[in-house]
Design goal:
single chain, about 260 residues, mainly alpha
């Protein structure tokens, strides 16, 4: 949660240390349940809104969810009384652009692949982040390379097993060909999304190694940039009517996605 290493008790002694450990365990439980609960709800909602013939309009999705993320981050920044960062807005605009590209490609891919495949592909996110970080001069310990290799190997085994199983299943050749080509395009979009993730993560690391920035302040600035870019995109590409239609069709779901994502 961002507290000091010494815990809430400035002095030594057995009782303060025990209290500090209890507080840490409670926060760990809250954070774990919060992450898992939010992620599961978000995943179920996203799978529902992109299945059964339903399609998300990506810029509308970005505008609504990023707007809710911005409001949440602003509230968190105010409650925690975080000091505004000295990072120039132009650099946050770069982060907003790469983050927006990642989300756009990721949501677009759900027109061609199912949500569990997207989750598996996103598990490989450390690969582009580390590659981009290495290009920017960052050093990683050997253990991190081994961990990433194990993750990628596990994802590869799972995906490979699924492919061979579907091949054994047979079925209509034309349908299989269409499905295979659609899935290949969806995976290509996920690869592009991961490249954007790599740029975002590596550039974030570089900025945070020089500047001090709080978690909600970072979230606020990046998501505000995404909201502005998505809004400009809706206007430039003349897609405001699609945004209105999307809000009419699944406005509640978009809000629920934004809240669970936040």
């Amino acid at each position: 949660g961002g507290g000091g290493k010494g815990g809430p008790f400035p002095g030594g002694g057995g009782e303060p240390e025990a209290g500090s450990r209890t507080t840490d365990v409670l926060w760990l439980a809250v954070c774990f349940l919060g992450i898992m609960g939010s992620f599961v709800i978000y995943g179920l909602l996203l799978e529902f809104t992109t299945s059964g013939g339903r399609k998300l309009h990506e810029l509308s999705f970005l505008f609504v969810t990023s707007g809710l993320y911005t409001v949440t981050a602003a509230a968190g920044r105010y409650v925690r009384q975080e000091t505004p960062t000295s990072i120039p807005p132009a650099r946050f605009a770069v982060l907003g652009l790469t983050s927006m590209g990642s989300t756009f490609c990721s949501v677009r891919s759900l027109r061609y692949v199912i949500y569990p495949i997207q989750v598996l592909a996103k598990s490989c996110k450390p690969v582009p982040v580390m590659i981009m970080g290495a290009f920017m001069g960052k050093k990683y310990p050997l253990r991190k390379y081994i961990n990433v290799c194990l993750i990628v190997a596990g994802v590869g085994l799972f995906m490979g097993g699924g492919s061979s199983k579907s091949k054994k299943g047979g079925g209509d050749d034309d349908d299989d060909g269409l499905s295979a080509s659609s899935q290949a395009f969806g995976i290509l979009l996920l690869f592009v999304s991961l490249c954007f993730d790599g740029g975002t993560g590596a550039y974030e690391d570089k900025l945070m190694s020089v500047h001090s920035v709080g978690p909600f302040d970072l979230m606020y600035n990046i998501q505000l940039g995404k909201t502005i870019l998505a809004g400009v995109g809706l206007l430039v590409f003349n897609q405001v009517h699609l945004f209105i239609q999307m809000c009419q069709d699944m406005g509640f779901l978009l809000v629920a996605l934004g809240l669970s994502g936040a």
